[in-house]
Specification:
Elements (H helix, E strand, L loop, with lengths): L5 E6 L4 E6 L1 H43 L5 H26 L8 H39 L3 H46 L1
Antiparallel strand pairs: 1-2
Helix pairs in contact: 1-2, 1-3, 2-3, 3-4
């Protein structure tokens, strides 16, 4: 909660100024964070699903038309297609569970936290998926007799894993911010009741 969300109100019983929370402004802020979290999750999901499914199908078809076909590329395409289908299933489950939150300020905040938690898990899953994909790509390079390229691919994927860690930390900080706001609101409700 920020100072902008506070209003100075005059207490008529004690003739002293008191500060109260502007609940409408706070609720609008929560809704804004919720919308941002949903948008980020939708974009991340769709990009990962489309990338995995498309790349898996392309690798499979290119490998099929090539003589001799590389076993590691078939494994890579199967892994990517399974990853894409897994993320598609997770997206459908997330979308189906959106209706379980009430439309109060606390319910909207819990919904935003659930989306942020999902985004952190999605980011971690995609980040960890770099490892098997990298190993399979390097194996296909070695299988094709290109050991120098396999080393370059592994270096590139290590840089990618590092960059994805930076992105993952952004999602974790957004989630912590929402959880902190929830703790503050829960503490205020406990004091008021």
């Amino acid at each position: 909660m920020e100072f902008d969300d506070m209003k100075k109100v005059w207490n008529t019983q004690t003739n002293e100024p008191i500060y109260v929370m502007d609940e409408k402004a706070l609720h609008n802020r929560i809704l804004s964070k919720q919308t941002k979290a949903r948008h980020t999750a939708n974009i991340s999901e769709l990009m990962a699903i489309i990338s995995y499914l498309f790349a898996g199908m392309v690798v499979s078809s290119v490998n099929y038309s090539k003589e001799p076909a590389a076993v590691s590329l078939y494994l890579l395409s199967v892994w990517m297609i399974i990853s894409g289908l897994y993320l598609l299933r997770a997206r459908l489950q997330r979308n189906a569970g959106e209706g379980k939150f009430d439309r109060s300020m606390q319910g909207d905040l819990l919904f935003a936290i659930s989306i942020a938690t999902y985004q952190v898990r999605l980011s971690q899953l995609v980040r960890w998926n770099i490892l098997p994909i990298g190993i399979l790509i390097a194996a296909s390079m070695l299988e094709g007799g290109k050991p120098v390229w396999s080393v370059l691919v592994l270096i590139f994927l290590a840089i990618t894993a590092y960059a994805s860690g930076w992105e993952h930390n952004i999602y974790k900080s957004r989630k912590k911010e929402l959880e902190g706001l929830y703790r503050k609101l829960s503490a205020e409700e406990t004091i008021l009741h």
